[in-house]
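Our consortium's second objective concerns turning raw sequence data into structural hypotheses that experimental partners can test. To show how far this objective has progressed, the report includes one record in full. It was chosen at random from the queue rather than selected for favorable results. The single chain below, 110 residues long, was entered without modification.
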Amino acid sequence: MLESTKDEQIVRRTIEEDLLLRGKKKLQHVNSFKYLKTTLTENGDSSKDIKIRTAKTLKVTSELDNIWKKKNVKRETKMRLFRSFIAPIALYRCEAWTLRNVDKKKLLVF
């Protein structure tokens, strides 16, 4: 995020308030909100979404446990299942995430 001076912030806030008043809409300032099933926060923290994705991924992985343990299923087939089912669940909407080092380590499990 680009840093701006206090004067720029005041001008921007004044313009936004003026536009809102003309449109007769009053917006409430919030710290976070859901948009397209992604939680957007004021500071760009994505850890909540990453936790949700990780939990869902682990649930599906455990539900397929009987397949992972089978000796007669080829490793190639297991990898295809992983790429088809597990990876998309883990990485859904990841393009909107702001990753910290802690979050990267959590995702490297998959």
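The partners drew two points from this record. The chain has one domain: 31-107. Residues 31-107 form one domain. Both points have been shared with the crystallography group to help prioritize constructs.
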